[in-house]
Structure to design on (127 residues):
């Protein structure tokens, strides 16, 4: 079950760097709040698959549930509950406001992952 998948890990690092760039330099109403959430669930999925040899669906559901949990934590003001409201890192990573649009972005990100993984596993691509 434990493994190390270099391909997934490199994709995780790449997505992480893109997310950091978005967080630091993109201040708009689409890329940062929505596309960033679309990408972050893919990042979590890739991270899981970097170290665990589990099915696409199990990893996808795990990543999606983790993302939903973080969003629900935002609803309950977890940053403030933990006393981290002055921490820019905590506010960026955990977030500070719940949004249904984020739930949709996470869900679409996982649908994208499943479609891509299904396409990559297609027998036509192995020829």
């Amino acid at each position: 079950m434990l493994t190390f998948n270099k391909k997934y890990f490199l994709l995780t690092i790449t997505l992480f760097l893109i997310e950091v760039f978005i967080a630091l330099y993109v201040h708009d109403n689409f890329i940062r709040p929505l596309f960033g959430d679309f990408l972050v669930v893919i990042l979590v999925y890739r991270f899981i698959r970097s170290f665990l040899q589990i099915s696409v669906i199990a990893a996808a559901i795990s990543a999606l549930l983790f993302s939903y949990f973080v969003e629900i934590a935002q609803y309950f003001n977890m940053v403030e509950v933990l006393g981290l409201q002055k921490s820019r890192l905590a506010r960026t990573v955990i977030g500070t406001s719940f949004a249904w649009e984020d739930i949709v972005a996470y869900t679409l990100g996982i649908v994208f992952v499943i479609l891509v993984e299904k396409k990559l596993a297609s027998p036509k691509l192995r020829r």
Helices lie at 6-25, 31-51, 56-75, 78-81, 88-93, 100-120, 123-126. Residues 31-51 form the longest helix (21 residues).
